[in-house]
Amino acid sequence: MHDEAAPQAPPQTEAPPAPAPTAAPEACAAPEPYAAPTDDGAQPRFPAMPASEADWRYRPPRTPSWWHRHARTLRLLAVAGVLVLCGVVILALVREQTGTDGLLVGLLLALLPVPLLVAAFRWVDGVEPKPWSQHVFVFGWGACAATLIALLANTFTTAWLAGSIAGSASEADLLGAAVVAPVVEEVAKAIPVVLLFFFRRRYFTGVVSGIAVAGLTAAGFAFTENVLYLGRAYGGDDTGMPYEAGASATAATFVARILMSPFAHPLFTGLTGVAFGIAAALPHRRRRWRAPVGLAGLLTAILLHAIWNGAASQASLTFLFVYALFMLPVLGTLIWLAVWSRLGELRTVRESLRTYVAAGWLAPSEAWALGTARARSLARDVARQGRGPDAARTVAEYQHFATSLALLRARAERGIAVSDFHAREQELLHHLWTRRATAAPPTQRAAASLSRPAPPPRLPGPPGPYGPPPGFHRPPGPYGPGPGQGPGPGQGPGQGPGPGPYAPPPGPGPYGTR
C-alpha cells in the first residue's frame, strides 16, 4: 500500500501593511494682529503696505457728488414734476371732452367744496399737525395722478367690454361704472396711503392720520372728477345724473355732486385710511396682521363704491333709498370715528404728559391744558393778546412738540418699537425747554381760566424689559435721568410699559416754575 501524500498548506502571503494614519489637517490659525510701536511717540512702519498710492486697495471715500448732496431736493422736484405732468395731461383730456367754456365752468363750480373738505381733514389731523408738503402731495396725487390713471383705465376697459363681453354700449357702461371703476379708482387713490404707510411712518401713526391722508387724496380726486362731469353737463354732452335732471343739466349735476354728495369719494377712501391707520397702530408682535387689515379696508372701500355707482345707475328711488338709508349712516359712522379718534389722541396726550409732570418737566395743570383743544386755543389767544403773534407762534410750537412727545411715549408703551426713543425724547424735551419761558405762563393761565383741577402726576414705575437695571437714582450732572428713567419701558402705578422719562436739570429753571 502506498501512503497518501499529506495535503500541502497554501503558501503564506504577507498581509499588506496597514496605511499609515494621516495627520489631521491643522486648523487655520487666525493671523496675529500687526503690533503697534512700543514707544508712544514713534512713527509706525508698514513694510507690507504697497509703496505706491496707485496700488492701494482701500481709499478714503470721495466727496459726495452733487446728486447725493441734493438728493432730497431732486426727489421733491421729481415728484412735483410727475404730478404737474399728470395735471397737464388730465387738463387737456378734460378740455377735449368739455370744451374751454365747460372746463372753466367746471373748475369754478368744483372748487366750491374743496376748502371745506381740506379744512375738515386738516382739523381732524390737527392734534399733531403734519407737514403741509405731505397733504399737498396727497391732494395733488388725487387730483392729477389718480384721476389720470382712472380716466385712462376706465376708458380702455369700457371699450374692451363693449367689444368683447357686453351686448350693448349701455351694458358696457353699467359694468364699467359698477365693477371696473370702483376697483381702478380705489386702488389709484390708495397708492399715496400705502406710500406714506411704508415710507413716512413717522407721520402716519394711527386712524386719525389715515383718515386725513385718505380724505385729502379723495378730495383731490373728486375735484377733478367734478370738473369733468360739470363741464360735460354744461356742454350738453352728459348730464352725469342718476335720475332725470330736468331742464338744466348743469344745475342738476351741481346739486347731485356738489351739494348732495361731496363726501362720496372721501367716504370710500376713508375706509382704506382707517384700515391702514389701524395697521400702523398695531404693536410689533402683531405686525403679521398689518397686510390683511389694510387689504380688508381697501376691499370694503371698493364694495361701498360699487354699491354707490350701481345705485346711481338705477332709477331715482333706488338711488335715494341707498343714499338715505345706507350712505348717510356710513358717513355718520366715519365722522363719529374721526372725532372719537381725535379726542382719543388728546386723551392720550393728557395721560402721557403726566409722566413728565412727575419727572419735573411740566406743571400739573399743563398736562391737562396741552391735551384739551379748548385750552390749547385759549393759550394761543392769551399769548397773542399779551405778547403778540410771535409769542402765539411759540405757544403753538410748544403744543406741537409736547403732543409729539406724548404720542411718542404712548407708542413705546403700547409695544411699538421705537429704536431711537431716547434720542427723540431728549430732542423734543430740548424744544420744550427752550420755549417754556414764553409758553408755560399762558398755558397755565388757560388751564386756570377753564377752572380745571390739575390731575395727580403720573409716577413712573420700575423699569421693564426696555428699562435700565433695577434701582432708581438721579446721578449728578445737568441732565441726569429721573426716577425710572432708562432705555426701556417701566411698569408701575399709573404707567404702562414704556421707557422712563428723561429728567430735567436739578434745581429751578430759568422761568422759576415747572
From TrEMBL:
Pfam families: PrsW-protease (PF13367). The chain crosses the membrane at residues 74-94, 106-124, 136-162, 174-198, 203-223, 263-282, 289-308, 320-340. Residues 1-50, 436-514 are annotated as: Disordered. Residues 8-22, 453-486, 496-514 have a biased composition (Pro residues). Residues 23-37, 436-448 have a biased composition (Low complexity). Keywords: Hydrolase, Membrane, Metalloprotease, Protease, Transmembrane, Transmembrane helix. This is PrsW family intramembrane metalloprotease. It comes from Streptomyces hazeniae.
